[in-house]
Write a structure and sequence with these properties.
The structure is a homodimer of 880-residue chains.
Chain A lengths: L6 E3 L8 H16 L7 E4 L1 H9 L8 H16 L12 E7 L9 E5 L5 H9 L2 H18 L5 H15 L9 H19 L7 H15 L3 H10 L7 E7 L10 E6 L11 E6 L3 H6 L5 E2 L2 H5 L1 H18 L3 E8 L2 E9 L4 H13 L5 H7 L12 E2 L6 E5 L1 E4 L2 E7 L2 H9 L4 E5 L7 H6 L2 E4 L7 H9 L2 E4 L5 E3 L4 E3 L5 E3 L3 E5 L4 E4 L4 E2 L5 H13 L3 E5 L3 H9 L5 E5 L10 H9 L3 H25 L4 E5 L12 H14 L3 H17 L11 H6 L1 H20 L5 E6 L5 H22 L7 E5 L2 H5 L1 H5 L4 E4 L1 H9 L3 H14 L13 H18 L4 E4 L7 H9 L4 E4 L4 H13 L1
Helix pairs in contact in A: 4-5, 5-7, 6-7, 13-14, 13-18, 14-18, 18-33, 19-21, 20-21, 21-25, 22-23, 25-26, 32-33
Chain lengths: 880, 880
């Protein structure tokens, strides 16, 4: 019977043998195989570990022989010998599981030292202090890990030695001091274990291997595996490797290098080096390392080798590497290499550079960059190096960072902005009446409301930073100040910084970093554009956003919300007159006043998107959103009643309150909005359609290519769309005829009500396109009001594992996705010409975009700043 | 070539030839065929009419010959002759379309009269005045319908004649007077048409037939057909029938009889009779008809004939008939018969009696009664004969009628009720704090809120009359009065009557009729029970409702809502303490106080339903529903601040306001409720489960058979159910073990969130049963908040034909139904033991019940008063 091979020398393994050799063993083998200078060693397999457990903690058959054989080979290769006082072989013994369990299992260094070999080491290196320090470290580690002696006891001995010598630092202890410490250590071990510290290196080695095997079952490791879902029965490999030392003098040292700059991606060695030191010393932070470039002066040959190794490693692993190395007396050794963590900027540059250097292909370059990370590159952000004074944390409602003076109302925001001040508008929540204040501000901070609150939606639409639902901030409007959790008070005029990408709020003006749109960024996205199947459009409501979206590569506008055209200080009063109109005529007059304003907006948007489709969604929100807040009015009316000093004002406010009450809804999300408004107040949609086509006709007459499309929101029944489609076409045709311009008229619908998806076949017969409004579709399919859910239970659901992810961030495939699949299929069957896309926030989420690709949508539409994300995600989805 | 037959004598046709002969023609033929005494006549077919139009208004080939032939036959049969002064044949000419278009087309009577035959008629009848009156009527009708002379001109001539004779009534005019009128009529016709009034009866007949044909296209008829969706190209038949006269003396007369009493169903001839009169006279209301029974005395032979005819007609048509008849000189003639309109009570009794008499079978009896009509029999209702003073109309929110004194708050309701007064609670809307007032009242009237408003739901639950959303009522709470549209003011203490079945509000105490649960009612339902497949359970929240439901035949409780157990003056304060609790311990104490109260409720309910399943739904509504209204608090706090005289109260109210604000939700329907509460506050559900199983154990130990089942509301993800199911089972087992009782534990879920239906397979694995909560499922599938939709756009949608029916009344098959079908199929596939039912309001709607049967549900559950409706509807569904 052939014995299964239980030990592999590093040059016998490779990266593919991870299951057998563990992650570290496979990595060391792979480096060795690649001809890199790795200290020699071998790996005891995970199978041997399992056999050890299976045998109830006895050495499995043949393992001891194999171990002796492996040690002999190692001695032969290194010219050293375990226990030989003249040429002592010292090794490290490390665990190495299949799945990384950082810090969970044990390591022993300098194994092989005893009372004889320590002298040999001192002789060979000529460094007494170094040798005795190594020895005492070994006894300490071995005593703790293998023999179970409490490590505090060892530390106490050092403390006593330092006290006796009147010094403070370990480095101040001499060779003689360490020799004393070793003596005391050995007495401690003998006292605790009733046996002298093992002097036989083979015995040391067997003890260490047993200890590493057993560490698989220590409590920390068991808990870690449970949390991370790692199977219990894998076992760990054991790596035994010759020790190398960076602390043997000024021709030695240790360091960490990245093959490219992990912050910028620049193709230049980046890292730090500490002369005459061990890895531990770098971590301890006692001495300050030098930049790696200085190595070129101090050890030009080693530096040249390092450059060469870096190049080899990148080619071998086909990625930027983060390398741990040691120089022992002018000789370079690699101890570890792994893919380097990097910023988004570096990831993009490195991926493109690697592709250009032929190390990876373009497909691989696309796969190397996390689409989500791209948004970091598009907004101003807080300098990572800055020292920040954190005040509070809310929801990251609209990305980007902004600093400014705190103001508590929109008028004050405008006043200060006009005087040239940067301001942050702080409100409990915003309403349409605050719009001019938001426009005037650098960013918005609210203490109430979620990711779809008014402030969040408006800020995202404007590309302004916004932190919402920051409940730990307690605003006192009368005192014009807010309190934070630690009791500090921030007054109007104080400067704060908000980070809408993280939800953090800081005191003072944090240093901000401008966005970088490098050539590599553009290049990578262009490569992606060649492979993706999904078109990427943008959600944009004004010419500025449209231009921004186009700059980011949007292929049109998939959602132009028109409600923002009803806001702003010059408009909201007209809109209120329209809503409060007592008769058709009065309403008509108000609508006529809005017509030129809307037309002007459409001209700007259509011009910015010349040649590309612009999908305009007719009015969606319930009308009461344009009126003053019911609660505010109630308070005002109560005050006026109590005071009794202004009966005229009271009457007027009471009248308004009555009207607001009539329009008030128990569940406005499911109320009188969307196409339900279009059906009951056809004149509102009529004027919107007129404004759009007058704008289109004007531009078309001037030679601009325009492609307007009209989208009806909240359709749930095909009859709704049938009626409104006819009205839209009638009015559009009337305008085009008046202006003598010919344009195709396209009318489609949002699919955002579950019933629309369920009856998609019937609806498709009336539609040129479907656009899944996945925000509302998710709300209704789950029965979650997003604003209510986020503060109250959604967080608990995600934390508690009831939901895998927030369904408003990542599209829910089993539920919402099933409706979408169904609607796409039945819609296309009923109308093969149907264009199908998505315009909810999921349109900018990579995982959701993968679903969109798989389900065969034609396009995704997302906010301008997500367009690059979506382009890249769509490309990755197409690559599968 | 054989000519298609264009005219059918009455004895040549039958009821099946409706398409060709029209409704009236087919009916007259059928009666003739059945050997009943119908005046002779014939029908010109609709095909002939179409041929007439096809020929551009010319007589189609062969029609004139056929008409002459038919007239000859008629002359032969009657022994009379058209235009013969001695034996003049007089006929009626009437239209008769395939679909009834009452009053839309024209009729001509007494055709055949001219200057000669009028004398013959006078001679034959011996009644000059009668003859001349007939002639003038004929000229007037013919002049108007055929010749197009304005009928006002004719009436003016009569008025002048009456003025000349100094009389007021037509009946005061003599034969001579009518003769003068005829003379003037003829002059009028000649002046208007430039031709003398046609004296030739054949010419008269051809003109009349043309006029009836043409009346198919008169404007009234065209509009009627458009509204009722009747095809334009059917044409009308023309019926020509010998005239009979009930006004030839005291051996003549006319009347209407029902073969059974249409109000009670009593198997006894019912109707009225007017001696010496024509049908027109009955309608004119100049003389008061006698009850039909008197005919037995005045004309015993005719009465006997009538009885015989009634029996024959019922056997022939297999239904209760409404018969028009005329007696001409002692001879009975039938002019029309049709199925009698009847009350629900009559329908039930007649159907059962007819079945017992062997005229129909039991299946047919079941089909004869509209299930919806049964509710009329279960509530007190307003006497139909009463003279009522209508004040306003709202939504019919909870059936039944109630009278009482108006009160404007719950405490006043209780105070007056304790003094023995019947009261109607009038509020703008109700909240949980009004519950004791609702309990104390006969009924509730609100000016706001829809069919699912608090008042409506609570009233239906209690079986109290309720009219909701009565917006024309303007309540002034300070003055303690309300205004109605016509300007009248109703003060506290005034008596009103509300009809929750129609939404009407009346002044004063309208006479009420007690419900009748006849033996026939029970019998019919028992017959239905034998054929139906669906079980019928009830929605009941208290012992009284449970007992009522059982009395009506419920087979258990399909939905026992527990939120009502949290209400009532003794409980709501404990519940508020629980909600406002600052820590777990305080919350726990409040819950402990609620435990015995809930247990006592469950004991009552389980006892009332001994031996039958009781499905208990754990707490569903959001917690803020148990707290004071936010707006009221805001007003109070503002007032306290303005007045500044009670700082302690202000602080306390401000604290409450803050808490209410925290719990306040933008869209409570989609907020923190249902199982989301169960997940975040597990102790609430735990106490409910404990109360239920303690009650069950107590009864079981006493020998009562109990079958509790626990239902989790608002599940949207299988993990929610998995977690809560485990918690329910754990607590239930703990209780049963404590009590030493064994009971099976069943846990199921509502399917009311679209996502639950979409992932029914996963959810079914965790459920013993599904219960479709179609109210919420409809709200979320349509994206309609019922309360908001009903007042704002749903009415317009139904009126405008966008929706065929209110989806909250009749289940929407294409959308909601599709989800249900899917969930049933996937749920049963995943769990073949799954019991599946419905507990939304649709569970009591006959059309929706048919869907439930077709989709294969196991049961429907509805409010107690709908149980008989559901039993009958389920039977009819099973009959297909």
């Amino acid at each position: 019977m052939t014995q299964v091979k239980q030990i592999y020398a590093f040059d016998e393994g490779n990266a593919g043998m991870r299951d057998l050799l563990g992650g570290k063993g496979a990595g060391l083998a792979e480096m060795t195989r690649a001809g890199l200078p790795v200290p020699e060693g071998f790996t005891i397999t995970t199978a041997a570990c399992r056999a050890y457990f299976a045998a109830g903690g006895e050495w499995p058959e043949g393992l001891l022989d194999a171990l002796d054989e492996a040690v002999s080979q190692l001695e032969e290769r290194t010219g050293l010998k375990l226990g030989d006082p003249d040429r002592p072989l010292l090794v490290s013994v490390r665990s190495g599981a299949v799945f990384s369990m950082p810090g969970m299992m044990d390591t022993i260094l300098n194994l092989g030292l005893n009372d004889d070999t320590v002298l040999g080491l001192a002789r060979r290196t000529g460094q007494d202090r170094f040798a005795w320090d190594c020895y005492r470290r070994f006894i300490q580690m071995y005593g703790d890990v293998v023999l179970g002696v409490d490590h505090y006891a060892f530390e106490q001995i050092i403390d006593e030695q330092k006290a006796a010598r009147g010094v403070r630092l370990d480095t101040e202890l001499s060779a003689e001091d360490w020799k004393n410490v070793v003596e005391e250590y050995k007495q401690l071990v003998e006292k605790e274990t009733k046996r002298p510290f093992p002097q036989n290196p083979r015995e040391q080695l067997l003890g260490a291997v047993r200890a590493v095997f057993s560490s698989w079952n220590n409590q920390r490791a068991v808990v870690y595996r449970k949390i991370h879902g790692i199977p219990e029965d894998l076992g760990t490999a054991v790596n035994i490797q010759r020790m190398v030392f960076g602390n043997l003098g000024d021709d030695s040292g240790t360091g960490v290098v990245f093959t490219r700059n992990p912050a910028t991606g620049e193709a230049k060695l980046y890292g730090e080096f500490l002369l005459n030191a061990q890895g531990e010393d770098v971590v301890a932070g006692i001495r300050t390392p030098s930049p790696i470039a200085q190595l070129e002066e101090t050890m030009p040959e080693v530096y040249r080798q390092l450059l060469d190794v870096a190049r080899k490693l990148e080619r071998h692993y086909r990625d930027v590497q983060d390398i741990e190395f040691t120089v022992e007396r002018g000789r370079l050794f690699l101890l570890q290499t792994r893919a380097a963590k990097r910023t988004a900027q570096a990831a993009v540059k490195a991926a493109v550079d690697l592709a250009k250097e032929g190390i990876i292909d373009r497909v691989e370059a696309i796969r190397r960059v996390d689409p989500d990370s791209l948004t970091q590159l598009l907004h101003r952000r807080i300098d990572e190096a800055a020292d920040l004074d954190r005040l509070a944390k809310g929801l990251p409602a609209s990305p980007g960072a902004a600093s400014g003076r705190v103001v508590f109302d929109a008028d004050e925001a405008v006043r200060r902005a006009n005087e040239g001040e940067a301001v942050i508008l702080v409100r409990s929540e915003t309403t349409p009446e605050d719009i001019h204040g938001i426009v005037a501000s650098q960013g918005v901070l609210t203490s109430r409301g979620g990711m779809t609150s008014h402030a969040a939606v408006v800020a995202r639409g404007m590309g302004k930073a916004c932190v919402c639902g920051c409940e730990s901030v307690r605003i006192d409007f009368r005192k014009r100040e807010f309190l934070v959790e630690d009791g500090r008070t921030i007054r109007e005029g104080d400067v704060i910084t908000i980070d809408g990408g993280t939800g953090q709020v800081y005191l003072g003006a944090a240093p901000l970093v401008a966005p970088v749109l490098s050539p590599e960024f553009q290049e990578l996205l262009a490569w992606g554009d060649e492979v993706r199947k999904l078109s990427v459009l943008a959600n944009a409501d004004n010419p500025e956003d449209a231009a921004k979206a186009r700059e980011f590569g949007a292929q049109g506008i998939g959602l132009c919300r028109t409600e923002h055209m009803f806001l702003g200080p010059d408009r909201v009063s007209i809109v209120q007159r329209m809503i409060l109109a007592e008769d058709e005529e009065e309403r008509g007059r108000a609508l006529e006043e809005l017509l030129p304003l809307q037309r002007q907006d459409f001209v700007g948007i259509l011009r910015a998107m010349a040649g590309l489709p612009v999908t305009v969604r007719l009015l969606d929100p319930p009308l009461h959103e344009f009126l003053p807040n019911l609660e505010d009015l109630l308070v005002e009316v109560t005050q006026l009643r109590e005071r009794g000093d202004d009966p005229d004002r009271l009457r007027e406010r009471e009248r308004l309150l009555r009207k607001v009450r009539v329009l008030h809804e128990a569940n406005p999300m499911l109320g009188h909005r969307g196409c339900r408004l279009g059906i009951t107040f056809p004149e509102v949609y009529r004027v919107q359609v007129r404004a759009l086509y007058e704008a289109a006709a004007e531009l078309a007459a001037g030679g601009v290519s325009v492609k307007p499309e009209v989208m009806i929101p909240l359709v749930g029944h095909h009859r709704e769309l049938e009626i409104l489609r006819a009205q839209v076409i009638e009015e559009a045709e009337r305008v085009l005829q008046e202006k003598g311009v010919e344009l195709p008229i396209k009318v489609g619908t949002m699919i955002e009500v579950p019933r629309a998806a369920l009856t998609a076949g019937e609806i498709a017969a009336q539609a040129d396109f479907f656009s899944f409004g996945t925000n509302d579709l998710t709300q209704m399919t789950f029965g979650f009001s997003r604003d209510d859910a986020e503060g109250k239970f959604l967080h608990a659901y995600v934390q508690g594992g009831i939901l895998d992810a927030d369904p408003f961030m990542v599209l829910d495939e089993p539920g919402v996705g099933r409706l979408i699949r169904w609607a796409v299929q039945e819609g296309r069957t009923a109308n093969p010409e149907l264009k199908v896309g998505i315009c909810g926030e999921h349109g900018g989420d990579p995982r959701s975009i993968t679903f969109c690709h798989n389900v065969g949508l034609d396009y995704v539409s997302c906010s301008p700043y997500r367009v690059p994300v979506a382009r890249l995600a769509a490309a990755r989805a197409a690559l599968g």
